[in-house]
Amino acid sequence: MTAPDRETLDSLAQPRSVFAEHHRVAFGVMCAGFACIGALAGLAMLTRAPWIFPSLGASSFLLFSAHETDAASPRNVLLGHGIAILCGYFALMATGLLLAPPSVVAGVDGQRVLAAAISLGLTGAFMVVFRTGHAPAGATALIVSLGLVGQPLFERLFIVEGAVALLVLMAFVIHRCRGRRYPFWTHVR
Question: Quick check: 156 and 127 in contact, CB under 8 A?
């Protein structure tokens, strides 16, 4: 075999190893997401409470595909969703929609538009101020301000944050079992 042929073979082997690693990561994201979201959905089914909601899917993706980023740190996930919940609740209170039916039932009117805008605007601002950026929390703010959490609202908002905490706990356990470095609270730089 001549020298250029070895170089050619080496260059062909490199993309295959990267390709194999890419698929291994994808498989891990799929399995971890399936297990965590499946467990939370099962808990929601058993308790008839909102242990599952759309923004958890986006959080799960970040926790398992980008676990080394600040956005996926337990601090940012927990505080980002917590800020969103508080801002969504404030928006409902400010617009007089605390006891209103959800937007999917009552439709979207001016009050609901204002509640959605307030919740998302405040959530983004507070996540920047407190350096707790976690994009899926923006969806949580909208879920709350659109009334999709249901009643009794205050009790259900604790369940929503509890679901986030359980997802973070499951991610911590899965990462540690896989031998990955994943922080208790935030990444140390």
Answer: no
**Exposure string for 8-40, b = 16+ CB within 10 A, e = fewer:** eeeeeeeeeeeeeeeeeeeebbeebbeebbeeb
Instruction: Select from 85, 86, 80 the least CA-distant residue to 129.
Output: 80
Over residues 72-126, the pLDDT tens digits come to: 999 999 999 999 999 999 999 999 999 999 999 999 999 999 999 999 999 999 9
* Strands in 29-159 per DSSP E: none
- Dihedral over alpha carbons 38, 42, 48, 51 (to 10 degrees): -40
C-beta of residue 52 within 8 angstroms of C-beta of residue 156: no
The answer, as to whether pTM is greater than 0.90, is no
